[in-house]
């Protein structure tokens, strides 16, 4: 069976890492790829970062693979001007993507690239599950000449659905992160997560940790975590902190998922940006893009064996000495792609 995938190369190095990712996917399965302009490229062509046609195509797909968006060309302080990032927010909302999954697993070949000592990160294998469509980022906002406010709002239903995602992904333990000693939304969060745990997931260990303590533990004892469950703003901050455990943000994939019933296509993208300073030079690291394709296979299409094959091929290439410039080497995009394909 052929799977229908919408591809959004985007801006900067996006097209340079998208093309190799499609080579990797073709090596493990049958796919139909439908490419659309997105982000700054779509602003230049259509005046909007996400067109109605592109959103409709994404809704009809089995999965959406995104490379990168943005760049100084589209930076503006004009609130009426379109920005590439608006495409991302529109896509998340349009597809109902409420759960952001960011796996953090430093690879042994890259332990020495981490800012933390090898013995501190060795064996780390965690997943940050971040609520993506609620909280302070989406609450009502006010502004006067001398004051401003941002409403942080969560409902029981929003908390339950993200917590269910986290418990479903956990091997043994969920660490729910909040600020329940101060925030009323966090007190509701803690109550709802605890009730869902008792009702549906008693076999999974649950612990509640305040966000400041969680930030410290991520650096001091990252092996402690299995799945970290958290609301939107805390998850935004903690997932970037966790990303640095690997030594290079160029190595990290992410998945954004919506409802399973009825199913909605997920969005899969590397964590890094569009890196316009190196675009067109053939030196972009495509490995996070390959690992994002693996998340598409696993979480979007249920192709676990193929996903594991891609992840293994990346790890073997690194064990054999593959290093792109961001990892301290000189291998270009083509070299990295060839090394991974050879290991598939």
Give the helix level as a range of percent.
Answer: 40-55%
CATH topology of the largest domain, what is it called?
Isopropylmalate Dehydrogenase
In total, the number of strands is: 12
Q: Based on the structure given, which CATH architecture of the largest domain is correct?
A: 3-Layer(aba) Sandwich
Mean pLDDT: 94
The rough form would be described as: globular
CATH superfamily of the largest domain: Isopropylmalate Dehydrogenase
Uncertain stretches: none
Total separate domains: 2
Going by helix content, strand content and strand pairing, the class is: alpha/beta
In summary, what is this structure?
The protein has twelve helices and twelve strands. It is an alpha/beta fold and 344 residues long.
Characterize the structure shown.
The chain is an alpha/beta fold and 344 residues long. The chain has two domains: 1-106 and 252-344, Isopropylmalate Dehydrogenase; 115-246, Isopropylmalate Dehydrogenase. It has helices at 14-26, 40-46, 52-60, 84-95, 118-121, 156-169, 184-200, 211-220, 232-243, 287-300, 304-319, 333-343, and strands spanning 3-10, 31-35, 63-68, 99-104, 126-131, 141-143, 148-150, 173-178, 205-210, 227-230, 253-257, 267-270. The strands form two sheets. It has a ten-stranded mixed beta sheet with strand order 2-1-3-12-11-4-5-10-8-9, with helices on both faces. Helix 1 links the parallel strand 1 and strand 2 (31-35). It is globular and about 50 Å long. The mean pLDDT is 94.
